[in-house]
Design a protein that fits this description.
This protein has about 230 residues and is mainly alpha-helical. It has one domain (about 10-215): Up-down Bundle (Four Helix Bundle (Hemerythrin (Met), subunit A)). It has 9 helices and no strands. It has helices at about 15-35, 40-75, 80, 85-110, 115-150, 150-165, 170-180, 185-190, 195-215. α1 (about 15-35) packs antiparallel against α2 (about 40-75) and α2 runs antiparallel to α6. It starts with 12 loop residues before the first helix and ends in a 10-residue tail after the last helix.
């Protein structure tokens, strides 16, 4: 990657922060579904909307990697990349299959609050493959990305997710990530945002997540499961 030797390289710390959020929320999600009383449509809607948002965040996160990260690593990472990226792609396929099962079951459960055991089991399966994938990604892929991907290229993944997400969900999603996020990493991520976002997001994001968590988890401070 001679042309990029002098360029600023990817700061991959934001990926660890995103993974922490997904570990926390997807670990809590199956029990949230199981705890909904059959027929309690109001509660199913709250939990279902939360699950739908998480599934969208996960899908866009992995879509960005498929479009941006894997091709760059295969082009530049040599044997290190070719030995691990195909396995990561296969894991994405497994996650997408589990994700598709969840998203197929979710609308009916959300509308009727019935069939929760099947949905919770599907979420358990999604969690299993997701945790395996994120652990391997952190061990093998992120060190490669820090060596072979420029900061501008890395930011394309985040830009993809933001462009595909409903704008109204972005502050809440960022608040979810900030909940266990390293303040230094949060600041680094926001450094590339427009000035209003840099000024407002550190205040708006945590408040939105606290309110959301109170509604979904019953507390503004759900367990910090970390990694």
């Amino acid at each position: 990657m001679n042309s990029a030797v002098s360029e600023r390289m990817a700061d991959v710390r934001d990926m660890y922060m995103a993974h922490t959020m997904m570990r926390r929320e997807f670990r809590l999600l199956p029990q949230l579904v199981r705890d909904v009383t059959p027929g309690d449509i109001k509660r199913a809607e709250i939990v279902g909307a939360h699950a739908e948002l998480l599934c969208l965040v996960l899908h866009l996160h992995h879509e960005g990697e498929d479009l941006v990260l894997w091709p760059l690593l295969l082009e530049r990472g040599g044997q290190e990349a070719t030995s691990v990226v195909p396995g990561m792609e296969e894991q994405h396929h497994a996650i997408e299959r589990a994700h598709a099962t969840v998203t197929a079951l979710l609308p009916s459960w959300r509308a009727t609050a019935r069939g929760g055991d099947e949905l919770a089991s599907a979420l358990d399966q999604l969690l299993t493959v997701l945790l395996e994938h994120m652990a391997l990604e952190e061990k093998e892929i992120l060190p490669l990305a820090a060596k072979h991907v420029t900061a501008a290229e890395w930011e394309q993944m985040g830009q993809h997710g933001m462009a595909k997400s409903p704008k109204k969900t972005l502050p809440l999603t960022f608040g979810m990530v900030m909940y266990e996020g390293d303040p230094a990493v949060v600041k680094a991520v926001l450094a590339h945002a427009p000035l209003p976002a840099r000024l407002l997001m550190p205040h708006i994001g945590p408040r939105l997540y606290a309110s959301h968590a109170k509604r979904v988890h019953g507390t503004p401070t759900p367990p910090r499961l970390g990694s």
